[in-house]
Amino acid sequence: MIAVWALGCYIAAIIVWNSVLRRNIGEALLVGFLVTGLFAGGDIGHVMWSSFAEAMQEEVTFAALAFVFMSYLLARTPVLDHLLDILNSLLGRLRGGPIYTSTVASGVFGAIAHVGAAITAAVGSVTIPWMKRSNVSGEIAATVAAGGAGMGVTFPFSSTMFILMGSAGVASVVSTDEIVLPLFLGGLWCLGYRLLAAFVMVRRYGIRPVDTSELQPLRRTLGAGWTSLLLFGGIAIPLLLTRGPLAGDLGRYVGATMSDAISLITWIPVLMIAIVLLLGRRHLPHTGRAWWELLGGAAPQFGVLGVTIIAAFSAANALGELGLPRQLTDLLAGVEAPLWAMALVVGVLVVGVAVPLTASATMAAIGPVAVSALIGAGVSPATACVAVLIFASTEGASPPSGAPIFVASGIAGVDPSRTFVPLLTYYCIPILFIGAAVATGVLPV
């Protein structure tokens, strides 16, 4: 069980370095990676180097930094201000309007895109600045955006769902068609809870409607800034090219699956940066020297975030090399307990694996044995699958390694560690209990 011990020491090292010694989260995750590497023994050099090399190739590393740069550019143009004026004209009178909008939008986008980091990036790029302008703290804005990432897993038809259903052990007891409706209902339970969490946050933090003196008629804001709506093109174009009839026609024409050929998490920030450059061209530098100064001003914002992302993914890869999924599977296979206890044990183990891994990797590693454990405790096969997918959906809200956390924090311009406690409180732990409630029949699907 060396990898299980490594996971515990990894999390403990981060907590001590960040919370006790008061060092920044980038240093803490780097120390956590080094501590994890020590468990490789004589193979430490190979494990650490291969883990680091793989982390450097992660799409999320590029995407998070790209969104930081996009936010930096937006701050130097009136494009985002125009867009937020329009949104406030529509929903500014609603207390907590941006938070509710972000939550519902994450659910809608999640049902289409299913990629946690892409959900946070696409929705958060608009709603995080909007929340901050509505006097929501950057930490809470990032928390709401990252907390919505898991809804891509709890609605059909995500790659995570197909990975679970494609395993021999699961496919032999339940078909994909049999879990579509239950999973949709499970997704609605999760969305409903997130709306309740949004309501609690709005009240707890005293978030008020936008001051009426700052609100303008919709006709005026649209007239002044309708071109800012083109920002949504950076989200819509990749979606149209990878989902729906157009994607199907293009795929048949080029002989490839468009969702595999075009990465949402890569192309959404690229297109949005291009649109910002186009719409804000009059307010951006026009000489090479001025551009160099602008880029120099952006550089400090990449430091801690870049180290944080690379260290987090490196540690996740190292834990995989040490055999964490296999060891947790063996641990789970030996557990015998009443249904309610088994549901919590399975949930905790799946959530634990989802801390360093993605939901898809979690399902590949531990999903089938988790489903089998619940079935053995008396849960119907379809319900067991839904519960396990709900557990895995915490990947976006599981500190310290969830990729959506870094994407949201980069857009909000906050230290990712400031979101850890709110994410655990409002999303990770409650969703663990929602999965357990589904498994035990308290929440029917």
What does this structure look like?
The protein is mostly helical and 445 residues long. Helices cover 73% and strands 0% of the residues. α19 runs parallel beside α21. The longest helix is centred in the middle third of the chain and has 29 residues. The model has no long low-confidence stretch (mean pLDDT 82).
Explain the layout of strands and helices:
Layout: H1 2-20, H2 25-38, H3 44-56, H4 59-74, H5 79-91, H6 97-113, H7 116-133, H8 138-147, H9 159-165, H10 168-171, H11 176-204, H12 218-225, H13 233-242, H14 244-254, H15 258-261, H16 264-279, H17 288-298, H18 303-321, H19 324-333, H20 339-354, H21 359-376, H22 381-392, H23 403-412, H24 420-440
Euclidean distance between termini CA atoms: 35 Å
- Which percent band covers the strand fraction? under 5%
Helix content: over 70%
Rg is: 22 Å
Q: How many individual helices? A: 24
Structural class: mainly alpha
| Secondary structure: number of strands | 0
Helix-strand pattern: HHHHHHHHHHHHHHHHHHHHHHHH
**How many separate domains?**
1
| Mean pLDDT over the full residue set | 82
Low-pLDDT stretches: none
User: The biggest beta sheet, please?
Assistant: none
How would you describe the shape?
Answer: globular
Keywords:
445 residues, mainly alpha, 24 helices, 0% strand, globular
Q: TL;DR of this structure?
A:
The chain is an all-alpha fold. It has helices at residues 2-20, 25-38, 44-56, 59-74, 79-91, 97-113, 116-133, 138-147, 159-165, 168-171, 176-204, 218-225, 233-242, 244-254, 258-261, 264-279, 288-298, 303-321, 324-333, 339-354, 359-376, 381-392, 403-412, 420-440. The mean pLDDT is 82.
